[in-house]
Design brief:
Layout: E1 6-14, E2 17-24, H1 29-40, E3 48-50, E4 74-79, H2 83-90, H3 106-113, H4 116-128, E5 142-146, H5 162-165, H6 170-178, E6 181-186, H7 191-200, E7 211-215, E8 221-225, E9 229-233, H8 237-242, E10 251-255, E11 268-270, H9 277-280, H10 286-297, H11 321-335
Parallel strand pairs: 1-4, 5-6, 5-10, 6-7, 10-11
Antiparallel strand pairs: 1-2, 3-4, 8-9
Bound molecules: magnesium ion.
Length: 336
Amino acid sequence: MSGEGSDHTVVIKWSGQEFRLSLPKDATVGDLKKATQAATGVLPERQKLLGLKFKGKPPGDDVALTDMKLKPSTKIMMMGSREEELDKVKEVPKDLPEVVNDFDIEEEEIAIENREEYLAKIERRIKEYKINVLNEPREGKKLLVLDIDYTLFDHRSVAETANELMRPFLHEFLESAYENYDIVIWSATGMKWVEVKMKELGVTSHPNYKICFMLDSLAMISVHTPKYGVIEVKPLGVIWGKYEQWSAKNTIMFDDIRRNFIMNPQTGLRIRAFREAHFNRDKDRELLKLSKYLKHIAALEDFTDLNHRHWERYRPKRKHEHTDSSERQLKESGDT
Ligand SMILES: [Mg+2]
């Protein structure tokens, strides 16, 4: 850096890491990209700096950082791949890892669910957490609460655009769910990231479905488990306390980490994590299958009898019996 001192500090978030960059007073967007390249190895022309705007548009390289009025230590999310990474993506993978590191919490679930201090924390969130309603809840709709990272989006792989990391059939899934459910997004990151990601994926501007509201890490609470220490979790009680039409009877939550719903284990469905987007994009059908499940259970008055661990085996009763048996017949005749 020059002797003029470092007058802009920018934090680049990329591939799950943060890089703090110091730039001189007269630095431009082009300089920022060069500094980003030095830190991450991603070429300037491959960098996409999300949320960086000048007069409502992505800034040209000659725009001075001073003119953009960046706040001190502004965080910018970057999409972009190193050349080596791009080469790797083109290679055939040697092994396809699908290890989900979620610890087993079964015995601890119930004990924690009822602990008074946690209920007090939930009360506090209900009072203090401000929800920015994007689209008013609709009468008679059930509630679907969705995690983002590894549920809707692979946030660790590198790519040119957010769309490459989007879980397959995301929009189809949301469109179908929207018919019976109001949709809420809940991510363990800050609201800025939640908004940037949902915007990049086109979720907040889709013509055929609407997002009711989004929650971030501030709506979470920390609980202590004897075995694993302090963990941050997403208690649905925060939403239920604010909206009396929703409860365990008509709510379902998807998350790739089971411990996130330790406060309401019966209401959570642990979705398979979507990772290694480049390898799994063509085969992941999880959201298509879950669309069907949501449709089937939407007819129920009460979700509390369901065991979402067995969602793949779920068969709707009576009403759809006919369809089911004809499907079976078709399958059987196809087998012979
Ligand atoms: Mg997740």
